[in-house]
Structures are given as C-alpha cells and as structure tokens.
Amino acid sequence: MAQSTLIIMPAYNEAARLGIVIGDLFRAAPGTPLLVVDDGSRDGTAEAARAAGAAVVAHPFNLGYGAALQTGYRYALRAGFARVIQMDADGQHDPGSLERIVAALDEGADLVLGSRFLDLTSYRPPLARRAGMGLFRTLAAILLRRRLSDVTTGYQGLSRRLVDFYDRRGIFPPDYPDANIIVRAVRAGFRLSEVPARMADNPAGGSIHVGLKPVAYVFKMVFALLVEAGRRLPAPEARG
Q: Do β-strands 34-39 and 5-11 pair in parallel, antiparallel, or remain unpaired?
C-alpha cells in the first residue's frame, strides 16, 4: 500500500488487544503509516500503540469517537496524505479487506464503505441491531435515492478531498458520526462506493450498544437523518 495512505485508528482503553491488532495490520499492509488516536484512555493504550510501532496522538481526556477521527483527519491533512483509511482498534475490522477499499479509492471514489453485509464470511449482528441498521438504511435510501447495504460501518476509505470537507467547522460531529455523515457526504457531491469487508464480532465482547444507549442512539440518529433532508451543504473543493 502506498505511503500516501494513512490508516487512522481511534482507540479508547484498548491496551489489552492493541498490540495484536496493530501486528495483524502491519503484516497485511507492511510499510503503511498508522496513526492511533488515543481518546483519553486510562489503561496504557498510547504506550501499547507506540510499542507496536504506531504513531500516536493522545487526547488529554475522552472526547468521543467523532472527535478522535477529526484529530486523525487534521493530522492527515497537515502531513500531506492523499487518502485515509479508518479502522476500529478492537480487532473487528479485518486488515485483509484493506486492498478492496484502496482499489475503490484508486478508481475515483471519495468515500468507500467497507460493508459487512457484502462479505458472506462476516459476522451477523444480533436481530435488534440489524433492525436498527435496517431503519437507518431505509432512511438513507429515501434521502439519497440509492440503496446502500451498510450505512453504520466504521471501516471506511476517504479521499483527501473528503477529509478536507470533514475538517470544515460544523460539518463533522464530535460524538458518533454514522449514517447521517454518509448521507451528508453524498448529498454534497462526493462519490461513494461500497466494497465487501470482513468484520468479526468484538473479541472482548464489549459494545457501545448496551443498556439504554441503543434506544437513545436510534432516536438521535433518526433525528440526525431527518435534519440532513433540509441541510444546505457547501460543494466539494478540489484541493491537494
């Protein structure tokens, strides 16, 4: 994979598995720069990432997944990278799918979604989660007049043009970007592609989708998608 590609990996309290995840990634994509954004971890995540050979930027306290991605995007822009691949730090995203994402970027896509539902070997989420995903997928299809298979995937590839767009004030949410941001990017004129990507269940068994969080998340995302229907967006700019 070219040196012009930066892999961004937001991480929060992932010290136990991070060395293994980074090792698997470097074996699949040797020589590719990796930035771990430690989002205020309390367990030595930053130290584990450095020991495994990754560059690290650390937040002083937990700011949220979206803020960690924004830090990675700004790092990529300032360092002059032509594109970004974002992956989770818990081992769910198989590095073996990286080449498909890179190939789609090479073919001219600005946003590449790694879809677990296009890869028959990927795990299938529990029924309740699949129902929520189906709701977001339906709303996104109505807004975009285009059907997508996985609008909640965090395994994505981004062109520099899209990273620059996300870096503008007010475009990217600091908490949890999801289907709403995919809709926002496509409605702003960016080219989207979906490719199969193998994903596994969280090896640690943890999830943000526990307790009342899933209920609040569904309401929040439905509202965010409805807001997108009336949002005016700046057009993409050809930079870098």
A: parallel
Amino acid at 148: L
Q: Using DSSP, state whether 196 is helix, strand or coil.
A: strand
Q: For residue 178, give the amino acid letter.
A: D
SS3 192: strand
Model pLDDT for residues 158-190, shown as the tens digit of each residue: 999 999 999 987 788 877 788 999 999 999 999
Distance CA 131, CA 124 (A): 12
| Sequence spans of domains, the chain | 5-228
pTM of the model: 0.89
Class of domain 5-228: alpha beta
Please give the Cα distance from 54 to 40 (Å, whole number): 17
> Burial level of 108, CB count in 10 A (0-12/13-18/19+)?
exposed
Q: Among residues 193, 183, 186, which one has the least CA distance to residue 115? A: 193
Between the CA of residue 59 and those of 15, 36, 68, 71, what are the distances in Å?
15, 11, 8, 9
Res 203 pLDDT > 80: no
Contact 156, 114 (CB under 8 A): yes
